[in-house]
Amino acid sequence: MRLHVRYAAGAAALLSLSQPAMAQGVDCVQRADVADMTTYAMPLAIEALQAQCADVLPADSFVMNEGSAFAARFDPLRDTAWPGARRVLVSIIEKQTGAKREMAEQANPAMGGVIMNLMRMEGDELRPFVDAIATQLIAGEIKPSTCGDVEAILPLLAPLPPENYGALVSTILGMVVEEDHAMPVCAVE
């Protein structure tokens, strides 16, 4: 799936944070968790888009002019979306490090203290860390050449209620995943 299509679907953050782990063999990610991660990460993705596209898009473009107001629509939903987003994130950490959260206390010292501390974090403790680094990670995935594509598509999707974005993204990803399982989303039961 091309990068600009992912951003247009509102999943920029979700995909940049979860693709490496998915390629390493997660059976599948629950659609509800993909939806939650999309909802949770949307304000971070818009902030990253604005940072990366500032030199490419005009000041009166949707991303630059209306992006902050668009992202703010997701803020009231982030608390509810956090548990699902956190499940995806913990799964990523487990897959990338081989660690299991329940085994963090007796983990291999070679894993490093930062990862082990992340694995031990409960509930909302992980949120400031995620918010602090996610925008930078997402921005690193955005190529200036995709800014125009996002600018063309995002205003078309903007009228949707923010509650619909996560379900839309998880459904689209569930339909378009190839056999290589770059981002396996669990099938609808």
Overall pLDDT level: 76
The SS-based structural class is mainly alpha
Shape: globular
Q: Could you tell me the radius of gyration in angstroms?
A: 16 Å
- Main beta sheet strand tally, sense and closure: none
**Order of helices and strands, N to C?**
HHHHHHHHH
Cα(first) to Cα(last) distance is: 24 Å
Strand content: under 5%
Number of helices: 9
Number of strands: 0
Helix content: 55-70%
The unreliable regions are 1-25
Give structural notes.
With 189 residues, the protein is mainly α. Helices cover 66% and strands 0% of the residues. It has helices at residues 3-8, 12-23, 31-53, 62-72, 75-97, 113-120, 127-141, 147-157, 162-176. The longest helix has 23 residues, at 31-53.
Which tags fit this structure?
disordered N terminus, single chain, 189 residues, mainly alpha, globular
Reconstruct the topology from this structure.
Elements: H1 3-8, H2 12-23, H3 31-53, H4 62-72, H5 75-97, H6 113-120, H7 127-141, H8 147-157, H9 162-176
Care to give the gist of this entry?
This protein has 189 residues and is an all-alpha fold. The chain has 9 helices and no strands.
